[in-house]
Amino acid sequence: MNKANRPKAKKGTKRTAKVRGKRSSAAIHRGISGGLDFIGAAFFALVIILLLFMLSSLVTWVRRDMNVVFSDLGTSITDALIIRRDTTQQAGR
Question: What separation, in Å, do the N-terminal and C-terminal C-alpha atoms of the chain show?
Answer without folding.
Answer: 120
